[in-house]
Structures are given as C-alpha cells and as structure tokens.
C-alpha cells in the first residue's frame, strides 16, 4: 500500500511539473494545435472516444489539418474547423460512429461536428468558447484544451449565409506531441 501511495504521489508531482513546462503528460494523446497567435495544447480522451481519437491522430499524422480554415466561429459558442473545402460541407471521407458520453461540453472542450445523423462525424471538430450543456450526450467529446485557450479566443469570428467566415483564420499546423522533436 505504501509503494502504491508513493507511486501515485510521484505521478501527481510529474503532472504538476509537466504542466508548468508545457510538456505533454501523455505525448501520444496530446495534440499541439498551432494558430497565428500561439500554440494550443489539447489532451485527447481515448477513454471517452477511442475511434475518434484514433482517426484524429491518423489525420494529424498525414498533415490533413495543416492550413485548414476555421469556417464557422460563433462568439460565445465555438470555433469549428476540419473541412478541407472551407465550406462546412466537406470532410476526409470517412464517417465515424457516435461515441457519446456523459462528459460535459465546457470551455475548452473539443467535440466532433456532425450532420443530423449521429454517425456522420468525419474530420470536422469544434472548440467551445463557453459551456454548451445543450450538446451534452448529443455530440462526441474527444478532447480538452489544457493550455492556449487565449489563442482560441482570438480566432476571427463569423460565418455567413454561405457558411463561410470572411478571410478566416487557419490552423498553421497540428501535430501529435509524441511526434514533435523540436
């Protein structure tokens, strides 16, 4: 029992140390989302959405998200990206089955966008600016911003009748922390 408590204390200490350095606690399940104003760190949640996390990592590793615009950004709600066409109607071409959970949509929660069908999520995702409890249990939660939310807050707002932001901000690059050597 004493050894277990010691191990838990060491793990907790490591978590606090890593949080202060910007290093990922679990590099294989951490994303670095680079925006014009800085780096956003997203801790992925394979415990909640293993298929979504696996697909996001697959897309990130082929640099699918690099240069993609935030096509729908609603003040007080969320910033949405992940459509290579920039229209809100595109994706990677592979739908995922819903992985709904009890995890709440709060500030910094990362969820999958989808059409009316629960099993229509593809590559589009959104980051909540504020709590959105009306999404709880209806959309897949796959991550949480752990640092850099101030950079998400600076993403240009807007979406028009055609679903596009005028001169939208883009993802500069997105990487799995385990793959970053810099």
UniProtKB/TrEMBL annotation:
KW Signal (keyword) present: yes
Catalytic activity entry: [protein]-peptidylproline (omega=180) = [protein]-peptidylproline (omega=0)
Entry's Gene Ontology molecular function annotations: peptidyl-prolyl cis-trans isomerase activity
EC number(s) stated in the UniProt entry for this protein: 5.2.1.8
Annotated PPIase cyclophilin-type domain residues: 38-179
InterPro entries reported in the protein's UniProt record: Cyclophilin-like_dom_sf, Cyclophilin-type_PPIase_dom, Cyclophilin_A-like
Signal sequence annotation: 1-24
Pfam family, one: Pro_isomerase
Superkingdom field: Bacteria
Keywords associated with the record: Isomerase, Rotamase, Signal
Function in brief: PPIases accelerate the folding of proteins. It catalyzes the cis-trans isomerization of proline imidic peptide bonds in oligopeptides.
Family to which this protein belongs: Belongs to the cyclophilin-type PPIase family.
Annotated protein name in UniProt: Peptidyl-prolyl cis-trans isomerase
Organism, scientific name: Pseudodesulfovibrio cashew
